[in-house]
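Colleagues,

For the teaching module next term, I've prepared a clean inverse folding example: a structure given as tokens, and then the sequence designed for it. I'd like students to try predicting residues themselves before seeing the answer, so please don't circulate the second half yet.
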């Protein structure tokens, strides 16, 4: 995992982040129980979550989850289906005309692999999704990944490496890389 960001868990920065996460959790909880037709209520809550108005041609079907919101940058004509999660600690940029299938997960945060450091630090790296990408249902995008223009991420894929433009990626293969 790429780790562009490193934060000590027992720090003032972490405490401020934890407070934001609690606030956004409360806001997304409210968003996810609104009547579907309450466009004004959804727009107000999404503005509080994202820290700015949602672009006019973005569609988000609830339930929708994010932990910060302020680090989630959605371009015009983005479609996000139901039950998607955006853990945006290190930043997520989603380009124009991106389609995100249901239950897709974007994760920019993690912990060091070293067992002695794991409980003391957060690591993070941004995710960048270029224009006209399709993320299939149940796909997981891991920290530090860039997805090129016109790419397709198949349903259920786990993406740990960059995706070239105009390509299809599939699969969930996990392998042992190291032992301790």
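(Answer key — instructors only)
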């Amino acid at each position: 995992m790429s780790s562009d960001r490193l934060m000590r868990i027992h720090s003032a920065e972490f405490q401020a982040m934890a407070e934001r996460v609690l606030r956004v959790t409360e806001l997304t909880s409210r968003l996810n129980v609104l009547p579907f037709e309450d466009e004004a209520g959804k727009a107000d809550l999404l503005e509080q979550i994202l820290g700015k108005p949602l672009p006019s041609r973005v569609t988000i079907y609830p339930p929708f989850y994010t932990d910060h919101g302020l680090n989630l940058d959605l371009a015009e004509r983005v479609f996000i289906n139901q039950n998607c999660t955006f853990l945006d600690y290190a930043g997520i940029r989603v380009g124009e005309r991106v389609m995100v299938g249901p239950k897709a997960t974007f994760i920019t945060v993690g912990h060091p692999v070293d067992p002695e450091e794991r409980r003391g630090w957060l690591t993070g790296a941004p995710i960048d999704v270029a224009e006209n990408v399709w993320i299939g249902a149940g796909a997981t995008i891991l920290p530090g990944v860039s997805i090129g223009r016109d790419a397709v991420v198949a349903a259920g894929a786990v993406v740990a490496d960059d995706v070239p433009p105009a390509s299809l990626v599939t699969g969930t293969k996990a392998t042992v890389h190291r032992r301790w």
